[in-house]
Queue: 3 jobs
Job 1
Amino acid sequence: MHNNIKPFIACLLGLLLVSLSFGALAHGVDDNTRVFLEQNSGMQFIPFIYIGAKHMFTGYDHILFLVGVIFFLYRSRDVLLYVSMFTVGHSITLLWGVLGDIQVNPYLIDAIIGFSVVYKGFDNLGGFKRVFGRQPNTKLAVLIFGLFHGFGLATKLQEFELAPDGLVANMIAFNIGVELGQFMALVFIVIVINFWRKLPSFERFSTMTNTMLMSAGFMLIGLQLTGYYLY
Amino acid sequence: MTQDVVSTKTLIKSTIAATIIAAMVFVCFILPAEYNIDPTHIGHKLGLTALAHHDDEPTLVAQGSAVSEQGQQVIEVTVPAGKGIEYKFQMNQHNKMTYEWLTDGEPLYFDLHGEPEGDTTGYFESYAIATLSEMKGSFTAPFTGSHGWYWKNTSEQPVAIQLIVKGQYTVIGLK
């Protein structure tokens, strides 16, 4: 079993590195993509799937939140359930935001996404139970933060003046791509976390990991709020 | 099996540690590298501010020579995200210039204008103001002085402009 898994992980990590070096931009969309998006008109199904997948796969804010969400999910059923809640949430606001032409400040929405990471890290530490005596419904929290992540995705596409021609199909393609990218990212996260859970270090470092998650969330908030005040 | 609830002491320690680490990384590394804000000067020492500098300073690749009354000259300028730049030419009164410029697709606010030589009042005359991604035209300088474009990029990505000029002028360049 181990012998089979090791080369698999090595391959996946290699792929990860390659894809990161091609698209080192986690947030915006890189220049080539931008040129493509602005020049395109009409339905471009596969390219939009690719753009969506790439954005999700290289978007560290979404990934950090997902790590937090599935950190203590031991059963595949739960992983599937929570990820589905997240997917429903961000799909609603992605489609609604772009099709309804809803203007949200990208810096503020990204700051809220940073906050979702802080929230999840704090939640994983049992912070809400400790401070308020009870934990807010975790499924509902994932759904609600999913809605904010979806607005974040929408702002990334709204930066371009997309041709109305084929907009709906392109949006759906982008959304499908987002789910594919999320799935690919989840494969890595689940493999690594499941492997790690078997080691004694998981329990020893789980507090530290969630502390770091909170810290990373605070950094994202700072980064985005500074951008908001400067631009 | 579900998650543990950590002790109050651990929770407070974790929260404070998360905040302090985030604040330190933010002030020492993220602010200098992303926004060229460097209160600790650590970013400068580590060369991180260069990352932000790269965006701040317009890059310029000029082809051809800056001789007046020459044929067509192609100039490329980049307007950094959220910034405005000015590109000017020295022209005498009644000198002519024909021009054409286009961005990589992003529309930019611009002001094509001239400032009289030796003027200290800040006076300038605008020949065209609009928000466009490309424009073609010509003008005759109404007075001796510097003439050219102000472009403002309100987007979050740098915008490259290709400017093609022909006429009687000397390049001053970025101002």
Job 2
Amino acid sequence: MAGESESEVLPGEESSSLPDWMPEGDAWVAVLGYPVTVLVLLFAVPLALLVAVSFFPKPSGGYYSVGFTLEHYVRAFTTPLYLERLAFTVALSAGTAFACLAVGYPISYTLARMESRRRRQVYITAIVSTMWLTYIIRSYAIGVILSKNGVLNELLMTVGVVSEPVFTSQGLFPVVLGMTYVFVPFAILTLYSSINNIAPELEEASKNLGANRFQTFRRVIFPLSKRGVYAAWMLVFILALGAYIVPKILGQPAQWTLPVIIGDQVTLQLNVPFGAALALIMVTVVMAILALGYKFLNLGARDLSGGGPSGE
Amino acid sequence: MASEDNPRPDGGTVDGARGSTGLTRALTGGTVDLPGLAARLYLGLSLIFILAPILIIVSISVTPEQFLTFPPGGVSGQWFNEVLSNPEWVAAIRTSLLVALGASVVSVSIGLPLAFALDRYDVPYMGVIRSFGVLPILIPPVIIGVAFTSYFLAIGLTGSVFTLAVAHGVFYAPFSLVLIGNGLEEMDRSVEEAAMNLGATEFQTLRTVTFPIIRANVFSGVLFAFILSLNEYIIAFLVSGFTVVTVPIKIFSSLRYSYSPVIAAISVIYVVLTTLLVAVVEHYTGGIWD
């Protein structure tokens, strides 16, 4: 880490912890030159351009022309449709995050307390693979299950619970189910690393003192995993805010989220400046929520990368 | 993280042992362990929720009929045949693989030197560069897609395998950065010193000592960018401008017409491919999530 590195080692002097080829002076410039140039040219500049474009006028024939206008922001904030979509996106994401906790927690707990390391690795590989499998295939799977002649309706009708199909493949329920399904692996992995850190002896002690399973869960395990619960909720919430595919495939226009509207503005309406303005509003919302999480729950970027490959 | 198993003093398992005694008691008419049973039922339902959709896709992909019927009327490879003999799907698969290959090269070429510099040197703005590591997971991809689209429009590049690979490569570079950074952080630096003391030059030390130690991490970074690029839709769609068709783009547009078993077949190919690659990463790194 940072603390171990030293930028200056005197030539000829024996260094106790570092080989003497360690950089002298500005050696890091040579190593960093290429990646930093690429990142500035291909990451910082595009993002800066996104900000600029959101203030550019939209000519009737082209994508954008250089200039300055606030019209896209005025439009975004004065059109009920866009504010409504933003509110819907936030509500849907919050609901998804709660659903993912409910489904993910028991699985994470079981994984963390699994005896066989081999079995656990098989489960984790399965969960991670589903996690990165394109949302399109997973939304399609949910759509197939819920469709009118789909497995679920057929099953319920065969058993005789209902006489007509009750589920449809597009609507609010499919979107909520689909969102929960695609984001639950992120919650599972985040919760897993948190529960895994709780010493099993604490549970044992609680049981020995006469608590039943439920009491042990409520008074011992859950409070100790609270940080993981916050982190998992936050991670799913942020990911869900950016969801595009699930609402587009499993939703009707009433369930379209802000990212769907942004994508449509760029690809169908060819209004890149307005899409950019909506995108910036979205980024601001995400940043504000991250800042709140950092301030009140002390959740840093590292806590939220639990779903990523950063490990522990 | 400690990955050791936790042996229990009584030799049983926390969950298994208690759950089964509960069940045995319930069956033999003893005290019913209701909370235990409820917990198991809840766990079972959660697992079904995670696994059922994929299993259903697999069964649709081998159905001999046009739609999935229960019970399935048999097993047939016709939908896989249809995918692999259709030039459009084959082209989409080839495009996806090319983009993913390019993206992994771009991402590791950024991540490796960056991780190395951050680990070894006092780089200014280290915190800023490091927080870049979580970007791809926290910034909505649609926004990255819009940014790249306006940028490529501005510099006059149209959608191509090249622009897609660059967009994915830059967006997924942080995964390489974090993985390789972890490897460098954990390695024992005294072996480098030993090599130098034995007369190896800087470059020889890097090539024959440092790199082999962090190889698994570099490899995982490459595979990660590959897996993610293979499965990414919205950035690819926005940047492609309708000219490049990757597998996710093709699946998405096919979904508008019907839920055909052909889509299930290509999905299964993707599920198998993604799972294999993830398993390789898991194996190679000894479990990065564990």
Job 3
Amino acid sequence: MSTGQSIQEVKAFSYDEDVAFTKVTLWKRFRRHRLAMAGLVVLCCIVLAAVFAPVFAPFPPNHIDNVHWQGTPLPPCFENAAACGGHPLGTDEVGRDELSRLLFGARASLQVGLFAVIIEIVIGSIVGAISGYYGGWIDYLLMRITDVFLSIPILPLLLVLTAIVVATSSRASLSFGVIVLVIGVLSWPNPARLVRASFLSLRNREFTEAARAVGNGDLRIIFRHLLPNAVAPIIVQATLDVANVIVLESTLSFLGMGIQPPTASWGNMLTGAQVNVENAWWAAVFPGIGILLTVLSINFIGDGLRDALDPGMH
Amino acid sequence: MALLEVRNLRTTFKTEDGTITAVNGLSFSLDAGQTLGIVGESGSGKSVTSLSIMRLIDRPGRIESGEIVFDGRDLLKLRDEEMRHVRGHRIAMIFQDPMTSLNPVLTIGEQIAEVVRLHLGRNHREARETAIEMLRKVRIPSPEKRVDDYPHQFSGGMRQRAMIAMALSCNPQLLIADEPTTALDVTIQAQVLELMNELQRETGAAIILITHDLGVVAETCKDVLVMYGGNMVEYGDAKQIFAEPRMPYTQGLLASLPRLDAPANARLKPIPGQPPNLHRMPPGCAFAPRCTYRIERCDAPVPVTDLGGGHLARCWRCTETLAPVGAAQ
């Protein structure tokens, strides 16, 4: 027992990490990260644009402009003001307004990213917390299951699963749900490992023993006392994973197995743009920029958060 | 009837080099409202004893045998669920280091209120009121403001007082304080001890004070239990033991203390040798290898001698008058 106590004494020294947790110092450190601040501004714009898509969009996203569209995509107004027919960023290959679809596509991408990551983090945190807290054979079992999930190639599985759903149903909302669920359910191993690692050290902290000594049950200790202490790496992982999921969703939609047309998503807009890529660059470039900016901003924010939450890393 | 009666407690830990016995057949009892000091150096088993009473011994540790009868019930026979209601409610504990034993992400108030909600079934608002009341009792200034502070906004002494507030919030019958002042400044130590004594008088709780500081024991405890190598070596009234220690280890401990009435150039008198390696315990008296008065019989298990007046010593020669171990040389 005495060796245990001396370890605690050494730990007391690193207590400053906890002190660094107040919101004010967190924001101060985050603000110093220029790219992260830029990312935050850009992402806020994108999120606002997506939320208020019906307000900003000049046309309904699935409206086909039969008046101006003649079989080829209309160019953006800044390229050919006479021919654009009032579509600021032109139209796609079937005459739907590019800007409107871009705005509504942002909704799809951000929603898939957000909801899939919520599922992933919830499952991952529970599995990792239980695994790290109890240790022993429970830990062993859960970690082997995690290994199995880690070894599943997610893209082929998603392709097959969504192909089945798409073949049996034509409702876009259904394929949206399937994508969210499958990505979420398959990508929990990473957060699970992170949370487990935190819990392995947290369970030996003195305040864990103190929490047991006042009569708390295991579940209360795990979720009320320890999980909030492990939140920093979870937030960073979640942020970076939103970006990953957006790329994954775009890939799926591009391959025709993601969000189903006519619902707009950045991925399936790219699919449509392939046909006319030589004479209608705008149809491919704008959704591409959308994906790029979103993913880049989120990754910068993630880096900024990591630096702010974990100053010891530098 | 005694509030707490520990009989033949044996707690072991499995390690890669074999099983070690951290507490080996310890027995003692404590009456309601009394203060018992448990003294001993690192590794003597004092902390393991307190954790055993709370049943907080974790793998690879195990309570092998014994009884811990608290308020008429053997704690070792309770279901986990029942034991949870004892912890924090009937028996509370204060840990050594207030810097690490409060959760950094929960406010002081939340942590105290949680215990009250857990055991007394109070709602959020009432529990918060109780938390403020307890903070006031342990003399945290403007408690209605400080209740929403996080632990890092408290100083070390305040944190330990907050721990005491938490421990006493459900009016426990027994408070186990495991080196409550070791991590604090000397001036704060005195305040914290005084506070504990005062609250004890108010609530009538019994206290087990675990420490290696004999000065603290002298100030606060009625009885004292000296541990060495996982078992009791001397037990009795604190005044009596300080005046007339009968076991050579206790004598050595007392002789090794600095004294105000000693000449300025006097050297401290340490006990020669090291505490026993728990992997290779001596077969008889654990102190025998360091003891100046060792005789042949000391290498076989030594029984406890009752010296009368509740004074017990585990030593063959406890009835003789001997000079302290360190001083004899």
